[in-house]
Amino acid sequence: MNAKSGGLILFLFTVPTICEASVKCIQGPGTSAATDCAYTSKTLCNQPIFREYEGQTPGDYACGGCPDMAPACKSCTSAADKACNTPPDTGEDFKCKNWEWRDDQFVVKDTPTICKRLKDTAVKCNIPGDNADSAYTPLHFGCGPCNASAKTDGKCEECDTAECNTGTSVFAFHLPLLALAIFYFIFERKFHRSI
Questions:
Q1: Please, what is the Cα angle at 192 between 191 and 195, to 5 degrees?
Q2: Residue from 55, 52, 57 nearest 121 by CA
Q3: Please, which residues bridge with residue 62 across strands?
Q4: Exposure of 157 in the CB half-sphere (CA atoms within 13 A)
Q5: What is the DSSP string of 66-109?
Q6: Residue 56 vs residues 49, 51, 88, 117: alpha-carbon distances, Å
Q7: Are the CB atoms for 78 and 39 separated by under 8 Å?
Q8: In whole angstroms, what is the distance from residue 163 CA to residue 108 CA?
Q9: What is residue 140's three-state secondary structure?
């Protein structure tokens, strides 16, 4: 075999390698820049899912499709110059009070819930309403708005500042208004009797 034919064979074996290019993916915990994937056959990237008020599901950013038995994952088709599995743009965490059913009423827990959110998601907390009973479960441990049907049914109320869903129970939440109404009623009766 002469040098000319040997060079041709070398060129034929080299061409597929030149045509194939690795795609870029964010890899690891999602804090580093995108890097080339090790295998040129992989065209997908995958990443954990971000859930409003709960945060990112467990798992790393990686090359390839979602692993088997990994429902909390999403994949995308990437490119050689830019990764598709970029982390979401998140907003600042906030806290909401967490409520539980105890002694036939809802009471607030000592430790608030840390709420995760995307950048454009509004700060909201929810609290059990007057019609909430033992079968009701506060949404996202107090983070975020009410479920629409629960709000309509009077089982949930919401507010729009951090830890605004405070109190010791649903009764105590409305106690100041009740006390004011009783005081007004007693004062009015005494006033009318004196004249």
A1: 90
A2: 52
A3: 46
A4: 16
A5: PPTT--SEEEEE--SSS-S-PPP-B---EEE--EEEETTEEEE-
A6: 6, 6, 9, 10
A7: no
A8: 11
A9: helix
Helical ranges in the chain per DSSP H: 3-19, 148-152, 170-194
| Percentage with pLDDT > 90 across the chain | 67
Question: What gap in Å lies between CA 86 and CA 170, rounded to an integer?
Answer: 42
pLDDT at 1 over 80: no
Q: Is 63 exposed, middle or buried (0-12, 13-18, 19+ CB in 10 A)?
A: buried
φ/ψ (deg, to 5) at 72: -90, 60
At 185, list the tokens.
């009623």
76, 84 in Cβ contact below 8 A? yes
| pLDDT tens sequence across 72-107 | 899 999 999 999 999 999 999 999 999 999 999 999
Burial zone of 40 (CB within 10 Å; 0-12 exposed, 13-18 middle, 19+ buried): middle
* φ, ψ of residue 125 in degrees (nearest 5): -130, 155
Residues above pLDDT 70, as percent of the chain: 73
Characterize the bridge pairing of strands 73-77 and 44-48.
antiparallel
| Residue type (1 letter), 175 | L
The whole model's pTM is what? Answer: 0.69
What the block records as the tokens of 63 is 């090359």
